[in-house]
Amino acid sequence: MKIKRDFTLITVCLFAIALRGQDNLLAHYGFDDIREERKIVEMVRGETFVPKEVFAYVKEELSGKEYDLNGKYYKVVKGVNGNAALLDGYTAYIEIDGEDNDNIPVVKDEFTIETWIALGAYPKNYCPLFSHRRDVADGYYKGYSLEIDALGRPSLFVATRGRNAIAMSDKTIPLNKWTHIAATYSKEMGLSLYVDGVKMASEKPMEAFQPADTDVTTLLIGKSRSETRPFGTIRPEGTERSFTFFDGIIDELKLHKVALDEKTIAKAFKKDKTIEAPELPERILPSGPKSPKIFRAVNTSLKYYEGWDAPWAIDKSADIVVQFDEADCKFVFWHGTSYIPNWVTENNFWFNNGFNEGWNNHGSCEPMSDKKSKYSTVKIVESTPARVVVQWRYALVDVVGTFAFEDPTTGWGDWTNETFTIYPDMVGVREDKLLSNAPHAAHEWQESIMVMGPGQSPEDVLEYAALSLANDKGETETYSWEHETPPFLPPSPKSPTIQIVNTKSEYKPFSILRPQDDPKIDVYAGEIRRDVSVFPWWNHWPVAPRPTDGRYAQFSDRASHASLSHWLWNAYKSTDRSLTKVMLNGLTNKPIEELQSLAKSWSNPAKIVFGTAGNKGHYVTEERAYHIEVGDAYNDLSFALKGTNETPIENPAFVVKNWGEGNPIISINGSPQSMGKDLRYGFVDSLESRDLILWIRLKDTKDVSIKLEHKKAN
User: How high is the pLDDT of residue 633?
Assistant: First the structure.
């Protein structure tokens, strides 16, 4: 009988220990449900408040009271115990005010906070998981807060007389994994911080805890109490302060009125420990589905993930994707990059040649600063089997919408029209026309930029030997970042005209400039932290909605970008109010040596000679095409391209003005041709005429004769 009595006593004691934390609960947010209600707001014309029609609430389990869940996006997902709350990281948070005395639980001498979280990305700065303290800016040190910092380290703040005592973990918690965090305070033991049941930090303050006022201080879950600049800000003058939000899932948030001991916390961790992956959304830069093997431009709306998409006031056809039929590569104009167009490789590596950039007192004036794409638009000008033309118009504004070189009289500042003429061989011409009050003032025209999605660092997408250069003499050089940053001004080859960025993909981005435009190149040699990445690496763009001109990436938790080089070259055209530059760019799976013919065919094109009277034509560099004007519509047309080693022919295109109706019958060197992969045509209508667009896959250094006949009606 004694054994039985002892066993019963032990069982009762263990049960009492297990229940100690539960008996002393002051608050418990299980997040098993989010209740929503919809109300039509009565608003009188002239009122200026921001109306709201969807209201959401979460329940505190002990009292049964509901509290406001604010934000554009939140979701009930599976948790470690029942359900949990997914918060978007941009707008969603819970706020409990002190209107009723019982709303905010009161802690005085000791307490424990514990919760389970799964992070989608690290906060931009300190972000509370559970915070009841006065803002230091109010002139007080009062209250307590359990927070996560920008390096993913949990921290407990406890206010004492004139300071905050802090217990901070020195380890970064992982992303996309359930983590148990607990923090305790007592006068005897001070502060302790636990991660997955293990004590990570402690601090014994000299002064006593100073509680916060429940009537003037709200309790916050998932949002910073004040606006701050992001950790890692590079240019403070170009970065506005903003709130920091929790990006991830939170579950089983509890406040105890006692400081739980280490064993009890370890048991709480083991009780709900799970190896199941949290229901965090997949975050992949969107370039559309796999190519349907049709060359075309398509209006669409590309989705990133629900939490990021939610605040955008966009609907159908917000973006443009150019698809190619011979490789699953794309050219993408997406609002998440402020429509800065990116060449996307077959394995979804993104690259762009930048944009025009000016400067003012806030920093950079560029589309990258236009976080909501207020001043950036795109439209399809042409989409035929022979070519695609897309125009991108954007303003050079800073992060608060102020223009570069703004005229105070007119209010107009710098704008740019970039027209991209793209062909089936994944070669495009960029015609970059700056419209400015001072077009010859200092501007930046190109930057070689890799764009990475979450989970990707520059080293994941780039070879260390990231940059290959060539000149029009055929001399080449490749530069590596592995051991040191290449020279700011690459010494060889002299006068480069061709660049390939060596991505870890079959198809690689290239750019070509004309030698007559006196091109020069430099290596992006600033803002490099080789202990983080051998390449310069930032995440203030893309998909970063806050007004930030520069922020170092610390991890691959967010979409980010890295830069390699700048092209500098002379204008193609200029007026008193505009300046235009041109470049060839695209994707290739050829070595850099094999781009010589393409470069020469564009910068020094073969002469066109007509065999029929009344016709004339010339080469249009900004379109990579010959424009032909026929004397009379429906007349047959014959001409020759005079190819040589110095004026090679490579995949020529033709715009036959006033062609009229009817498909062409095409002969090359006297041989009839059929429409297919190597010969493509289409029609473009203008107010004056119907033009024929023709593209031919053809490479030669000899004369090539071409004849176009109108197909006779039956």
Answer: 60
Say if residues 151 and 121 touch (Cβ distance below 8 Å): no
Residues 617 and 610: their CA atoms lie apart, in Å, by 8
pLDDT at 41: 82
For residue 560, the number of C-alpha atoms closer than 13 Å in the C-beta half-sphere is 25
CB 346 within 8 A of CB 505: yes
CA distance 83 to 80: 7
Query: Would you tell me how many other CB atoms lie within 10 Å of the CB of residue 117?
Result: 24
| Strand-pair category, 703-710 with 154-160 | unpaired
Nearest to 272 by CA among 251, 242, 246, 296: 251
Return the closest-CA partner of residue 585 out of 490, 500, 707, 688.
500
CA distance 33 to 75: 9
pLDDT of residue 100: 58
**444: DSSP letter:** B
Contacts with 437 (C-beta within 8 Å, 6 or more apart), sequence order: 405, 406, 407, 412, 413, 414, 577
Go through 251-280 and write b for each residue having 16 or more CB atoms within 10 A of its CB, e for each that does not: bbbbbbbbbbbeebbbbbbeeeeeeeebeb
Exposure string over 471-509, b if 16+ CB within 10 A, otherwise e = bbeeebbebebeeebbeeebeebeebbbbbbbbebebbb
DSSP string, 476-533: EEEE--SSSPPPSS--SSSSEEEEEEEESSSSEEEEE--GGG--EEEE--SS--TTT-
Task: Give burial (CB, 10 Å; 0-12/13-18/19+) of 43.
Answer: exposed
> What three-state secondary structure class fits 38?
strand
Q: Kindly provide the b/e burial profile for residues 412-446, where b requires at least 16 CB atoms within 10 angstroms of the residue's own CB.
A: ebbbbebbbbbbbbbbbbbbbbbbbbbbeeebbbb
Contact between 572 and 583 (Cβ < 8 Å) = no
- Alpha-carbon distance of 298 to 588, in angstroms, equals 22
Radius of gyration of the chain (CA): 32
pLDDT at 101: 54
Reported pTM: 0.94
Pair 564, 466: CB distance under 8 Å = yes
Looking at residue 5, its pLDDT comes to 47
Residue 654 CA to residue 672 CA, distance in Å, equals 18
Q: Which residues lie below 8 Å from residue 22, measured CB to CB, with a gap of 6+?
A: none
Cβ-contact 558, 454 below 8 angstroms: yes
Low-confidence residues of the chain, pLDDT below 50? 1-5, 7-21
Residue pair 617/607 in contact by the 8 Å Cβ criterion: no
pLDDT at 73: 97
Question: The tokens of 109 are what?
Answer: 């001498």
Check if the beta carbon of residue 134 is closer than 8 Å to that of residue 140.
yes
**Residue tagged 């060839």 (tokens):** 584
SS3 letters for 247-274?
Answer: EEEEEEEEEECCCCCHHHHHHHHHHHCC
Predicted local distance difference test score (pLDDT) of residue 233: 96
pLDDT of residue 138: 83
Distance CA(410)–CA(243), nearest Å, equals 35
Tokens representing 577 are 């109010």
254 Cβ partners below 8 Å, 6+ apart? 21, 25, 27, 28, 29, 112, 113, 114, 115
Query: How many Å apart are CA 247 and CA 118, to the nearest integer?
Result: 9
| The two structure tokens encoding residue 280 | 């965090």
